[in-house]
Amino acid sequence: MASKLSAEELRHAAKYYFSPAAKAVVRDSGFTLDTAPDSVVQAAKSMLSDAVSGTKRKPVSAMHPDVLAEEVLAFPAAKIISSAIGRQELFRKFSGLIADYVSECIGKEGEAGIPDVAAELGISAEPQGNGFFLVALKDYLRSDFREKSQKLVNQAVSSGSVTLSGEGLRHLIGSVAGRELRESLEQISSRPSHAKNIPLRFMEAAKEIDAMLSATALTKFSRSDFGKAAPEAFPPCMSKLQSDLASGLNVGHTGRFAFAVFLNAIGMDVDSIVAMYRSTPNFSEKVTRYQVMGLVKRGGEGYACPSCDKMRTYALCVADCPNTVNPVQFYRREVFKNAPAPAKNRPEKRGF
Questions:
Q1: Were 302 and a residue from 272, 289, 296, 312 both cysteine, which residue would form a disulfide, CB within 3.0 to 4.6 Å?
Q2: Please, which pLDDT band fits residue 2 given cuts at 50, 70 and 90?
Q3: How far apart are CA 249 and CA 268, in angstroms?
Q4: C-alpha gyration radius of the chain
Q5: How many angstroms separate the CA atoms of 78 and 125, rounded?
Q6: Angle formed at CA 89 by CA 86 and CA 94, multiple of 5 degrees
């Protein structure tokens, strides 16, 4: 994994995967899926494991050139593994990990070095003195900000530019890096035959990360959060919706509606139903409660759960469940099947 770059350039590449230095490391290494060392695949798995578990990556502190080069190569390897899995929730978690990592690395650069890092991502940041920078409006709009305080309406905008503090610019660079990674993963995974030529080592790594992702989603809520409902008896479509909501994905209106009325139909109370939506983007307790109340109180019984045919129309059906016409039917059948058999009445023994 010899590289022509200096130790300082390698450290820079290991922090900023979008930099020309990082691209040079990949080019100089002759990186291919077939020849990538096992250590690089393991480093990629570690990177994605951090993303799935929500563990923050610390700025690289290694000094040996081979270790630094391995850190750089782990990034494209992790992209391959992620695209093989093809789950939006993983794309979101991976891009979030990189956004936070880049932002933290920039925080250790010092104010003078921030514009150079921004330029490597195509962001023009002009120092204004007193720790502030002028950023083009078009560059600010490349971000993936979700916090209300970071929305454009809450920024100082003038003549097509946004004035940001050093901290604000640091978060902007991280956000743009994360968004571009997520869009790249979506583009790769959308290719019809993208996974066809991925070596077995990468596919095995993908299987492990996929299982970890599913397990994390299932443990997002404790068993008691479901009240008397039995999440293990959910039909595949509702398990998928629950997993997506727990992972913070922006589930569409029909998905949110279908999941809420399903939970109401199987006996969950309003508080428990509202709690299922707490991880969704821009969650509002007041708005969610109002909407749920409208769904469950209609006519005293609430809206009926959409049938399987309706779920297919909504593109929410994810499996072909035999002998099932409604998700509630599937749930009740599973609950009944797994219920303990009632004790048989035995004749009372009489003494002599």
A1: 296
A2: low
A3: 22
A4: 25
A5: 30
A6: 85
* Widest CA span in the chain: 104
Axis-axis angle for helices 65-85, 20-29 (nearest 10): 90
Count of the separate structural domains present in the chain: 2
Tokens of 220: 């997002």
For 215, phi then psi, to 5°, come to -65, -40
Span of 16-20, 243-247, 344-348 with lowest mean pLDDT: 344-348
Q: Do 37 and 100 reside in the same domain of the chain?
A: yes
Question: How far, in Å, are 229, 261, 289, 299, 307 from residue 293 at the CA level?
Answer: 19, 10, 6, 12, 21
**SS3 helix, strand, coil % of the chain, rounded to 5?**
60, 5, 35
Sign of CA dihedral 59, 24, 85, 253: positive
pLDDT in tens, 10-61: 999 999 999 999 999 999 988 888 889 999 999 999 999 999 988 998 877 7
pLDDT band at 152 (very low <50, low <70, confident <90, very high): confident
Task: Please give the sequence-ordered ranges of beta strands (E in DSSP) within 64-173, or none if there are none.
Answer: 125-129, 132-136, 156-158, 161-165
| Strand-pair partners of 158 | 161
Q: How far is CA 158 from CA 26, 124, 150, 155, 334, in A?
A: 40, 16, 16, 10, 60
Other CB atoms within 10 Å distance of the CB of residue 293: 14
Amino acid at residue number 118: A
CATH number, domain containing residue 50? 1.20.930
Tokens of 299: 């006519």
Q: 54 and 194: one domain?
A: yes
Q: Which of 57, 64, 21 is nearest to 39 (CA)?
A: 64
Residue 330 has pLDDT above 60, yes or no: yes
